[in-house]
Sequence to fold (349 residues):
Amino acid sequence: MKKITALALISMALFSCKKETKTVTKVDPKTGKTVTVEVPADSASTSTAKVAAQQAINDSAGVFHQTFVLEKGKSYPLKTVQKDVQSITAPNGETQSGTSETTDEMSFAVDNFDKGVYDITIHLLGKRNAQTANGKTVAVDTKAAEPKEEQLKMMWKVNKALVGNTLKMKMDKKGKVISITGFDPIYTKVASSVSGVIKDNKEKTAFANSFKQSFNEKMLKEQFSKNLVLLPSKGVKLGEKWSESENASPDGKVKLTTTYILKSVDNGIAEIAVTGGIPKKHDKATQQGVTRSMSSELSQNGTIKLDQNTGWIKNQVVSVKTNQTETLSDGKQTQTMKTNSNSTVTVNP
Fold:
């Protein structure tokens, strides 16, 4: 009896230690397929919801949405580098090439979060412009000394007056920029920086107005919306495509289409593939016996990576290629000029 009792007690102990399980379905982030797994019953109903609530890019029934989960007191970088390499082949076959590169650096410091809205201070940290042609490079860098070339000094003064300033931004959890303020002190500082270079009052006013048109709330709202909010508001499944179109010509007849694909959400990174461009276009017109033919096309491809936990952009590398051919002919002679451009836009390199 003692042995039987002991065995019974052991069996009871083993049974009591075994946790109840529950079968749940979830989306495999690598394949995008729905799989069935067993999890402890006490966590089956709460674990998935808890993780999703903590992640900025969360999965709800196989559909991913982008929000922002930013930490108060922490700063998030936004550094953009655009490099353009252009070559022009003249009718005589000679080719000239040049490279230009622009770097803009800023950071976003989270001051507060209340009622679904972030209070953020934007720090303008640095700006650099560089051009290379015929083996010579000239650069205007706010982190370097004022250039010696007279034609570059004004650009340096303007950029130097721009950086080191801050703007105040309000943004909701979905990335919608509600407001950006603090421009007037920057306008005053920039206008003052060129007072020694521009003497004529009309020219000063024209410069100030031009600067305001290129640096204002509307422009920055559009820039941040394009750079930070990538997933569509309705959400997207793994492998799903979505497209955006914008005018590539003043009359709106030529459209630039960008197609995105959510490739994967794994190891804390949401990866998006980028393709698209402008289809090949042909134009032909004749004036005064001279026929002008023009063909052009643009293609782009690259990858954007988002931090799944914060929703912030982790890295972007998108390449854009443009080819243009122009031909002039009077029926006896024909001249052709070709222009090729390769641009790369990198965010948070």
Summary: The longest strand covers residues 95-114. DSSP finds seven helices and 16 strands in the chain. The longest helix spans residues 2-17.
